[in-house]
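Summary: Need help interpreting a holo structure output

Steps to reproduce:
1. Submit the protein chain below together with the SMILES for flavin-adenine dinucleotide.
2. Request a joint structure prediction with the ligand placed.
3. Inspect the C-alpha cell block that comes back.

Expected: a single structure record containing both the chain and the bound molecule.
Actual: see attached output.

Input attached:
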Amino acid sequence: MTDSFDCIVVGAGIVGLAHALAAHRAGLRTAVLDRDARAAGASIRNFGFVTVTGQQEGITWRRARRSRDVWAELAGPAGIAIHQRGLSMVARRPEALAVLEEFADSAMGDGCRVLRGAELAEHGEGFRQGLAGALWSPHELRVESRYAVGQLTQWLAAQGVRFLPRTVVLGVESGRVTTASGVLRADHVVVCPGTDLVTLYPEVIARRQVTLCKLHMLRVADPGFTLNAAIMSDLGLVRYLGYANCPSLPALRAVLEDEQSEWLADGIHLIAVQGADGSLVVGDSHHYADTHDPFQPRAVDDRILAELSATLAIDAPEVTERWIGVYPSGPDVAFMEAPAPGVRLVMVTSGTGASTSFALAEETLADLLNLAPPPHA
Ligand SMILES: Cc1cc2nc3c(=O)[nH]c(=O)nc-3n(C[C@H](O)[C@H](O)[C@H](O)COP(=O)(O)OP(=O)(O)OC[C@H]3O[C@@H](n4cnc5c(N)ncnc54)[C@H](O)[C@@H]3O)c2cc1C
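--- attached output ---
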C-alpha cells in the first residue's frame, strides 16, 4: 500500500469524521484510517444529543452552538434524521428549580424559558406529576448516532473522502503514517484516537492525565407518549459545568447528597431521548479507570431507571437493550496538540464529542493551515 494525500485523519469516530469534513471543505485530498471495519466506539454508543445549554461557559458553549449548526446543515444532504429539538431540563425539586431560574437569568440562559408546576403538563407529554418545573431550551438537537455516524461516513465518501477501514496506524511522523499494511504520506495528519491511549503519542496523552470513563446505557421500549425534547433532571445540574456558577447549586448538591448519594457515587445523571420508533435511549453513569472491567452491574441500571420513572410517567420501563460506552476523560474538556510539524493530536476528553467536534475540527484545520481562527473561536 503506497499512496499520498493532502491530509490523513486517524480514527473514524465523530472527532475524526468532523476533521475529515473540515479538511475536505478546505480543499484537501483527505483519507480517513480506522483499525475497525466501521466505527464502533463512543461515537455510535452515545445519545446523539447535541447539547448546548449546560455546556461550560466560553469556548465549549460556543463550539456546541457552531457544531449544532453544522449537524443541521449536514442533515439534509447526508440523509441524517433529526429526531428531537430542544431540551426540557426538569427540576424534580424546588432547589433544582432555583438553580434553573438563576441560569435562565444569566447570559447563558439566552433563549431559554422557565416552566413552573402545571406549565410543564401544558408544555409536553410524559412528565411525572408533582415536578417543580423545568427549563426549556430550544438550542439542542438529537440524532440517532448508531445510524448518523454511518450516514455521515457514506456521505463524506461520496464527496471524495477516501476511507481505509481495517487499517491500524502504528506510528505517525511529519508527512508519514505507518500502518500495519504499509506507509502512507500526507502533508497534514490529524490523529483522533478516541479511547486508544497507548498506541500514538502516549506521552502526550499521559501528560494530559487522560483516563477512561465507562457509562451504562439502556434502550427503553416506547412509553406510549411523545417527548417533544430531550429530558434531563436534577442530577444533571451538578454534573454539567454550565450550571456551576449558579448561586443555588451548593444547596441542591446538599439535598442530592442527602437523598441520592448512591446515584452521585455512580456518577448518574438522567438523559432520555426518543427515536423514530418511540423507544428511548436512557442513561447514564460515570466510572473512571485506566482499564475497565466489562461488567454492567444491574444496581447501576436500576438507579438510572428509578430516576427515569421519577421524572417521566413510566412506572415499569421495559428495557430492550443494554450497552457500555467508554470515552477518554481528563482535566481538559478537549485538547489539540502539535506533537510534530504538520501533525495534530485531537481528543475530546469529556462527554461532549457529538456536541463540539465540528467546531473543534474547524479550529484544528485553521491551525494546521495557518489560517485565521474560525468565527466561533
Ligand atoms: C455512552 C456515551 C454517551 C455519550 N453521550 C454523548 C452525547 O449525547 N452528546 C455528546 O456530545 N457526547 C456524548 N458522548 C461523548 C462522545 O460520544 C465522544 O466524545 C465522542 O464519540 C468521541 O469521538 P472519537 O472520535 O474521539 O472516539 P471514537 O468514537 O471512539 O472513535 C475513535 C476511533 O479511532 C480509531 N483508532 C484509534 N486508534 C487507532 C489507530 N492507532 N489506528 C487506527 N484506528 C484507530 C478507533 O478504532 C475508533 O474507531 C457520549 C459518550 C458515551 C460513551
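--- end attachment ---

Reviewer comment: The CA atoms of residues 191 and 345 lie 5 Å apart. Residues 59-78 form the longest helix (20 residues).
Status: needs-info
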